[in-house]
Amino acid sequence: MNEITMRLQIDDYIKSALKEDISNEDISTNAVMPDFVAGSVELIAKEEGIIAGLDVFERTFKLLDEQTTVERFVKDGDKVTPGLKLALVKGDIRVLLSGERTALNYLQRMSGIASLANKMVKMLEGTGITLLDTRKTTPNNRIFEKIAVKIGGASNHRYNLSDAVMLKDNHIAAAGGVKEAVKMAREYTSFVHKIEVECENLDMVRDAIEAGADIIMLDNMDHDTMAEAVKIIAGRALTEISGNVTAEKIESIKDLGVDYISSGALTHSAPILDISMKNLKADKQ
C-alpha cells in the first residue's frame, strides 16, 4: 500500500479507531509508564493462516508517534504458523501499549479475511472462475476488508454504489421489470459503466439477455436452474453466481462454468486470525 493511499484514504479511519479507544487518555499505561522509556515488543502468530494488513498495523503506531519502527519478518500474503515471529515493534513503550489493541484489531480482522479468501480461491483452482467479494462489509472498514480480500488472492466486486450499475430485485420492481430497468440504466449512465442484473429465475435471465445486460447474476438459484441459465446465456453476457456462497458451497457450484462467484461471507463471516504482541522489553540503558 503506497504512502499516498495511506494518507488520503486510510489515516482518518485509523485515527477514528484510535480516538474510539483513547477518548481522553490511556489511564492504565499512564499509571505504570508516566515517562518516556524506549522498548520493543514482538508480534507473534498464534494460528495458521495468511497475514494481511501489516501496513495498517504499522501505520497505527506511527500515527501515535512517527518515531515508532516496525521490523517485519514476513510480508502481506505470506502463510504464517503458530509461534512464528512476524515483526518487532520498537519505540516509546507508552505508544506500544496504547496502540496495541487497535493495531491488532486491524491486523487480526484483515488476516482472517485473507485466510478465508485464500482457502476459497484454492478450491476454485483450475476452473477459470474468479472469486469476488461484495459490499457486505463492516461500516467504515470497507477499504481494509477489500484490501484483505485481494491479499488473500480473490478479487473485488464494485467498491461502492458509484462504481457500477447493479440492478437488484427492488430496482427492478421500482422500474417495472428487467427490460425497463436495463433500458433506463443504459440511458442514464455513461457508456463506460457495465450493467449487471440480479436474476432470480429463468424468465428474468431471458429478459436480461434480450435487454442487453453486460453481466447476469444468478441469485439464490438451485444447481439445475443455474445450469439451465448458463445454457440460455450462452456467452452473450458475463455470468456470476451469488447468494449464500460459503466455502462449503463452493464444491457444489464450481462445475457450472460461470465467470464469477461472489461471496459476502468473505467479509461478513470470516473469523479473525489469532495474533498477539508479546515479550515487551525496555531497552537496556
Question: What would you say this structure looks like, in words?
Answer:
This protein is α/β, with parallel strands linked by helices and 285 residues long. The chain has eleven helices and twelve strands. It has helices spanning 3-21, 27-32, 54-64, 93-123, 142-151, 169-175, 178-188, 202-211, 223-233, 247-253, 265-268; strands spanning 38-45, 49-50, 69-72, 79-80, 85-92, 130-132, 165-167, 195-199, 215-219, 238-242, 260-262, 275-282. Strands 6-11-10-9-8-7 form a six-stranded parallel β-sheet. The protein has a four-stranded antiparallel β-sheet with strand order 3-5-1-12, covered by helices on one side. It has a two-stranded antiparallel ribbon with strand order 2-4. The two termini are 36 Å apart. The mean pLDDT is 96.
